[in-house]
Amino acid sequence: MILEKKAPNFGMETRRQEQREATTAATTTTTTATIATATMRRRMRIKSEAATIITAPGLIITWSQFVVVVAVATLLNSLVCQAAGRAPPEPYYGRYIGQFTNFAHGIKGSIYAVDESTLFVKSFAYDGTGPDAFFWVGKTARPSPEGYIIPYPEEYKGSDPPILQAHNNTDIILRLPMGKRIKDIRWLSVWCRRFTVDFGEVFIPPSLDVPKTRVLPEFRRLAHGLRSSNISVLDAKTFYIPNLHYDGAGPDAYFWVGNGSEPNIMGVKVPNEIGSLEPLRGYQGEDIEIQLPGSLTVYDIDWLAVWCVEYRHNFGHVFIPKDLDVPPALGQTKITTTTTPRPVYSNCREILPNRLQVKWELLGEYLQIELFGRITEDQYMAFGLSGANGRPQMAQSDVVVAFYDTNARVFRAEDYFISDLSQCDGQRGVCPDERIGARNDVIVVSGDRKNGVTSIRYKRLLQTNEAIYDMPIPIDRDVSIIAAVGPLNSRKEANAHAHTSSDHNPDDIRINFSKRNDHACKNSLYDLKDESGPKPWPTRKIQGERKFRAVIGPTGGKRGYTAITGGASWGIAWYINDLLIPEITVERGLTYEFVIEGGNDPTQPARYHPLYITDSPEGGLGQKTGLEARKQTAYAGVDYDEDGNPTPTAAGRYCEWEHRTVDRSAEIATFEEYKSTLVFKCEDGEPGYMNWTVPMDAPDLLYYQCFTHNNLGWKINVVDAGASGAIDDLQLGRNHLVLCIVLTVVSLVVRRPRLA
Questions:
Q1: What is the four-CA torsion angle of 314, 449, 438, 369, rounded to 10 degrees?
Q2: Which one of 182, 312, 371, 742 has the largest count of C-beta atoms within 10 Å of its C-beta?
Q3: What are the backbone angles phi and psi of residue 564, rounded to the nearest 5°?
């Protein structure tokens, strides 16, 4: 690990100490400071005529310099004190439970609660001579045969856990099996199963508050397509970043942590998911885990960002709360991260036609589910076990309600119990488990929203040990399910409402969650066009023109870019000759002139749109790297340096069609009328120019696109000479000559009879 020495405000040397060590250290520091001050006073001589301080032989500073030194020292001390008050003592093993009480075989060890289902035994000792000894937990008043084994080691061969071996001051991590949690047990014992003897025990305090994973919002989206789903702080050093997107175009970008109200240059690089400190590559919906370097912990930082060191630019960040109480970093964190696109499920059912699909897979004691719904941002999608097996029944059902929280900017999945088809009053109705005294047993893994489809992936234990509000998920038989979509209320909860056959399943649908290749989804919801919106405007076409003016303008909502292309837009698009993304027809061998006014200031990425011609329907060559960049060919508007890196050549001043007030595309039937609601504005400067001679071997379909952003342009149809209706100067001259010859011949024919 490499830790840059750029952040003196971190106080990373030893910010968190044992309470006793902290007190001792503070006393020592105070004593040392007093001695040092006394010594300095004895040595210091004030020269009033020079206004200087002699602090030591050969070291002379002015009073102003001395004040600055004192101020800096005070600031650093306050930062250290602030961090020390915010962080738990170090070394940190979790919430302390107690010491083993030894009855036989030299049992020793200190026990800590690491998280809701993990225990840590510090310096465990046992002579190993018990014939059938195990770590043993239960919920009776004292250790008894009515308990169960915690296997150690956790990974073992065979069907039975191994007998506990001898240990001498061994640090041990114990994971409770079968979805059990620390709140479900009352004691931990080293127990001899054969002779029902308790070798040593420790009791769990009934009100023990254990550290928990903390879910944060997604990355703030500032530049280079950076986005993610909810980021989780798994432990004191580990972040889990699901569904990470980043175009990889930053020249010197890293994961970056530090202090302050905003990301800044005084930060520290964080290695990527493979432990490398190379500049970040591009990510396309990948789930990754990163760990803070050295002794740095989440208690030492205020934010996590993606930061370009060379240009000192923040691509996006998330703030770290100051009230964290997360598990310690003891190596217990085990999570599967991907360096490939999101998993392809073998199981898929379309529950609501063209509206809701569910995919699932078993992951040990968990069922992982991904819901795909064509819903709006003020709607939810729900899926779970029916209240009655053999028919779809909402009442008494156990469901998960998933949605995008527009206020918190996070994807959420909440555990619900539906006692009645009414609004939740805190006791009955369509209620989140947490509102009726239970807990949310659902863990959000990732979420995404694009092309009108919201997808949320979550997981839940098959058996949660909540008998009243959670049903166990059977894996040995078919079970009736229930699904629905509907509106959210002001509390961001599922709003009870009258259901129709299109927003819930009226028929009994059964699923065996242990089956594989149960794939009945015929189409992806992403491939469906939204038929609910207004009627789209027809595609405009330009033929026979040799000069094109390209400016920026609004996309026209559901009637415009998305309806024409079938793809997502990000609010702006190219206007060619004052038409919204028209199809252009050009001829091979002819030369065309483009006047480009999409912005020429790279420091303003939202107003910097060089035009280029490519075979990519997406564009955005400047965002692409490696194989992704090599997948497309640029035909005009791009030069390449000696290293093969593309640079745009067709950029000019920024001109844009803007809304006079608000976007009225949804209520306007024609593009011509819509255009009358816009006003055209140009910044000072000169246009850019690009002359393009269409290659004779150009493919039949190309695209005019933006070099720096995806999805701004549309099609260029390439045809052979003469097929487009375009008339060049040479052809015009030829036509004029032919016309003169015809007229001369006709004139001679008409005059000849007269001469006769």
A1: -120
A2: 371
A3: -75, -45
